[in-house]
Amino acid sequence: MANRNSNKIFNKGWNLKKRNLFRTVFMEFLSRKNIVDILVKRLDIYEMLQVMIAERKNDLHFFSTSEPSDTYNLEPSMTGRHSVIHGFYDEISKHWISYLMAWIEVLRLVNAPISAAKVKCVLNELILKKNNPLEVQISSLSAPQFLSEENIPQLPGDMNKTEYIEATKIMVKMYRCVTKFLGPVLRDYNLRNRGQPRCDSEIDVQALLFDLLDDWHKNHRTQTNYQTDIANITTAKEGRNKVCHGEVFVILRNWKLYFVSWIDLCYLLNAKPAAENIAKIYTQLTSEK
Asked: What's the superkingdom here (predicted)?
């Protein structure tokens, strides 16, 4: 059984600060290599790691170290990202140290020693069992270099610094809603519906939303609001995917739509406390506009 305390702290570290740290550093590294074409509309850590793995296979000197060990930490970094995003708690509890160490080495590999040191601090906090809240300070996030000094967007897309910071802030809050509120609601509904937990992941929100869609198609077709419910579940799934894949442009445009879909979905599944908690975060964000 996974150590829930360790997983909770670990997820906070990935959730709030480190995901945006990786996005910025990886995007800057690939921009320096003139490899940005497929990343124009999203800042997806998984895709960026895939690109680095493929480029290293084709070019032994892709990284400045040019050592055989260059490749040792790229795959574990992807596995760690995948385990966290898809809620593989048992895997996280077994391998969280190796995941964090791999992330540290990959950050060093892309010439980001300061960022590597920040992740090392998270690793040390977890090892020492310090319960310091790993809260993000949006104002301290460094804007990626696709934003020029004149605040003119270069890559990706048409986003200036203010919009990037705003999208990052919204994305962080949305990810918290997905992992802390929506995920447990879907897990509990799935458990009641199936009589047993999913065998592949305890709280994979994407898989649970697919299960929910399947259940609604099979068992709720005769209900008056069937089409509305299906549309709402589909929107909720889209919102989860946009957040987990770093699609900051879509998030900045559609975040209110995704929030409302998650709130409505929680009410649909008779999870009023979760709906109210998500609504509080939504209200907080809208009041800051």
From this structure: Eukaryota
The answer for 115, left when phi > 0, alpha when psi is -120 to 50, beta otherwise, is alpha
Contact criterion met (CB below 8 Å) for 44 and 246: yes
Look up residue 180 and give its DSSP letter: I
CB half-sphere exposure, 180, CA atoms < 13 A: 18
Contact 148, 164 (CB under 8 A): no
**Cα–Cα dist 49/29, whole Å:** 11
pLDDT score at 6 = 43
H or E stretch at 4: helix 4-12
| CA atoms within a 13 Å half-sphere pointing along the CA-CB vector of 78 | 14
Q: Which two tokens stand for residue 35?
A: 């490899």
SS (H, E, C) 62-82: CCCCCCHHHHCCHHHHHHHHH
Q: Model's pTM, two decimal places? A: 0.64
For 241-279, how does the pLDDT look when each residue is reduced to its tens digit (9 = 90+)? Answer: 988 887 888 888 899 999 999 999 999 999 999 999 999
Average pLDDT over every residue of 73-91: 81
Cα–Cα nearest to 249, from 173, 166, 142, 151: 166
- pLDDT, tens digit, 9 for 90 and up, residues 113-153: 888 888 888 788 777 765 444 333 333 344 444 444 444 44
What local confidence, expressed as pLDDT, does residue 20 receive? 61
How far CA 59 is from CA of 54, 56, 63, in Å, comes to 9, 5, 9
Q: Which helix (H) or strand (E) holds 287?
A: helix 272-287
- What number of CA atoms fall less than 13 Å from residue 218's CA on the CB side? 7
Q: Which two tokens stand for residue 110?
A: 């892309």
Q: CA 182, 184, 189: angle at the middle one, nearest 5? A: 95
Could you give the CA distance from residue 185 to residue 203 in angstroms, rounded to a whole number? 10
